[in-house]
């Protein structure tokens, strides 16, 4: 018996600090958390026993152990040692040579498309209700520290370093309201920019941040109209957005990773269903869907009936761009013999969408797909219900088979301007760095403008005009958990395939990581975008169905 | 040659805290799945299983970190520093000024372990360890993300170590003291300890000053089977068989363990007598089956007239320093602190 019981050692278990109303978290071994693992202190003995059993099974296995990592075996969420060990143990119980097969253990080896719901039983007690950021432990690394940044390349040039210092000083003076000082710093930076290489590295990014700061200081009204589907913006805006989005899609792998990972998860969730319905929160050009349609066409047993509801901003000047995209997708579906129906829902804002517009029927399996849309709902008006609550509320009522969520892995929604500025400076520096490798033009140039618009919104806008309110995975886990969703873990198969996707890009440096059942794509060691999947926790009170029957002046087809 | 396949789990459970046992056993079993008998390695699954953490330029618990990537080679170093006293400076990387103009701030270049094949600079266990080192020693730590076996064999890891050393030595913002130079120490655990030795040799030959080496149960081996290997095989998380696998993955194909990389003071070793080699702190865990080779290494240093201190932790197993829940951890940290801050 060791005198160093984990509960009493220095810097050990969490839960003792902040008053923990969530008892689920109170018990986690703090030292193992610092090593990246979630194990409850009260479970340690049990986990140790399972590890022993696993080792015994391994030692006695006639099969080479590395077979456990063949393409048939999918691993999920390695942070949860208990469930990982158990899943391996059940692997062993299925090898034919062991006489004592236990038929009541869930079968997890069914091929590449494994239904992740099996894992959810073990996860039910593990819903990632991460500790709020203030619950910091000794050397903790699982809860996100207040600001989590990486600079990927150190700035060697003196002028580059000087630029960063000036940017920070300028941002600080903006936060303090010292606008004349801020203005003179802008001047200084602009003259410094002339002496710095602005074609790459910090010089290029600094230019965009200086411009964004400049807008904030000198033309705040103009910046509130800048970009996005904000009321008042003209038709050019939506078209521009789509164009820039498309080039960003081509220039770097972030959106491809998003689509690819989400499609994979949706495909698995739709397994066994004959009627499926995908609700896309931001249709754009529908770039995500041809791959899913083709994958469904090739499904063993034949494709299901696929309905796609695409949400997007209303088109001005009489065009119906949603329908146009829908027609093109329908053509593709026809060519591969997938029965397909499309519906466009035009809405200025996601929170204006009502359940009845989606026309979901009770027999179909629903997938809700949100690629960088949820963060836009975080800005709120004190006089109205928070849009995020409205939307998550009706998603929950929908009870989808899966909700795929892709978001920026960044903390750009903090209340303090300086914090947001610093965080975004490093985030976008890293993203621009990754873009250096792209040689396609005009894709690269337009992708840069796409990113620049985000920067501008984060830095120069406030209130409802600021819709780029990115939050990291830990916060989304907490939010979605509280809103009644539980995670569906993305496994090693999705991870492997995402890595394969990346080898198509010559740039070495893109990096896929597993993060407690979610996947992130980043540049070197900095994750930049996260992909996760969710389902609604069953609630006895909410029947699947339509609750609101408000009429709206929305162009719903 | 093959070790015993017996599962002697009870012994290891008696000597380490339960959470440490869970941690190291988890690694052990995962690693068993990753190694293939044909000598290849399941890198995809390894990367999936490895718990990684990003850097943080806003300090947490008095330490901040950031990553540097060489644009040409892609070599990544993660730099950890004590937090600036002035909160207004948080988030700003001071790359123009030295660490101090008055006092000496040691810079420890750290090579993570993993038997040449596993882990990364941003692995959670190593990130956490480096942060603790910074806190306790008030040092700067630079963790090197060297290329791993079997994809990259000898001498890649040593080359990357040497590159990192040159990079660190040439950073003006890592200088300290009245003599305005970078006060460098090399450190590593397991394979990282082996790397530290070989980089130190190269540095000494090139007359690049390294003030000290810290080798934490360094990975060495030889063709013969030593008594400790036979006695401890399979008893405390490690087997001879897995050690053999990793050497086969790192050493040039067809080579044996008397290669100078694994056996620097063996029959094919190159003498370092007369070389201006740094002082060494060699930490040996008493329950590590590799200890006879580590003790032979210490002997080899002594015979070559080099300064070496042996810290022998009788009841320690490998990986005792991952969690600060045992005496050995604190003993180790104190020794390292005294080693890099000799005048404090």
TrEMBL record, chain A:
One of its GO terms (biological process) is gibberellic acid mediated signaling pathway. It is found in: Nucleus. Residues 366-457 are annotated as: PFYRE. Keywords: Gibberellin signaling pathway, Nucleus, Transcription, Transcription regulation, Ubl conjugation. Its main location: nucleus. Pfam families: DELLA (PF12041), GRAS (PF03514). Residues 29-96 form the Transcriptional factor DELLA N-terminal domain. Residues 245-310 are annotated as: VHIID. The keyword Ubl conjugation applies. InterPro entries: DELLA_N_sf (IPR038088), TF_DELLA_N (IPR021914), TF_GRAS (IPR005202). This is DELLA protein. It comes from Quercus lobata.
From TrEMBL, chain B:
One of its GO terms (cellular component) is nucleus. Residues 108-321 form the Alpha/beta hydrolase fold-3 domain. The keyword ATP-binding does not apply. Keywords: Gibberellin signaling pathway, Hydrolase, Nucleus, Receptor. Belongs to the 'GDXG' lipolytic enzyme family. GO terms for biological process: floral organ morphogenesis; fruit morphogenesis; gibberellic acid mediated signaling pathway; positive regulation of gibberellic acid mediated signaling pathway; raffinose family oligosaccharide biosynthetic process. It comes from Quercus lobata. This is Alpha/beta hydrolase fold-3 domain-containing protein. It is found in: Nucleus. One of its GO terms (molecular function) is hydrolase activity. PANTHER family: ARYLACETAMIDE DEACETYLASE (PTHR23024), GIBBERELLIN RECEPTOR GID1B (PTHR23024:SF98). InterPro entries: AB_hydrolase_3, AB_hydrolase_fold, Carboxylest/Gibb_receptor, Lipase_GDXG_HIS_AS, Lipase_GDXG_put_SER_AS. The active site is at residue 190.
